[in-house]
Write a structure and sequence with these properties.
Layout: H1 13-22, H2 32-46, H3 55-64, H4 84-89, H5 101-108
Helix pairs in contact: 2-3
Length: 110
């Protein structure tokens, strides 16, 4: 996978990248890493569980920014249930603790 791979968008490079280059916007293409960063941002900061491909528009916005005072709309067309494996891959597994009250209180530091 190279730096401009649109793998998370599930489209071929031969289709997307030449189109971006033709309109002079190839430098604004986002990488898988940028898409996943936007995906995590949306979950952590906005409580939005979208599919990774939907996070591409937000990744683009985070990459190029917007003029102060402007209104920007990023349409998120799919929810995270379309690709739960990506969500699971973005988090650390929770620790296993005993199923009793004292262990839960201890783990939470209460």
């Amino acid at each position: 996978m190279d730096d401009q791979s649109p793998d998370l968008l599930h489209v071929g490079k031969s289709d997307v990248l030449p189109r971006l280059a033709a309109v002079g916007r190839l430098e604004d293409a986002v990488t898988d890493a940028e898409i996943l960063a936007a995906y995590r941002f949306l979950a952590a900061e906005e409580s939005v569980y979208c599919e990774p491909a939907s996070a591409a528009s937000v990744a683009g916005l985070l990459k190029v920014g917007a003029a102060a005072g402007s209104t920007v709309v990023c349409v998120l067309t799919g929810n995270g249930l379309k690709d739960p494996d990506t969500a699971v891959g973005q988090i650390s597994p929770p620790p296993a603790i005993a199923a009793d009250y004292a262990a839960i209180v201890e783990h939470l530091g209460l």
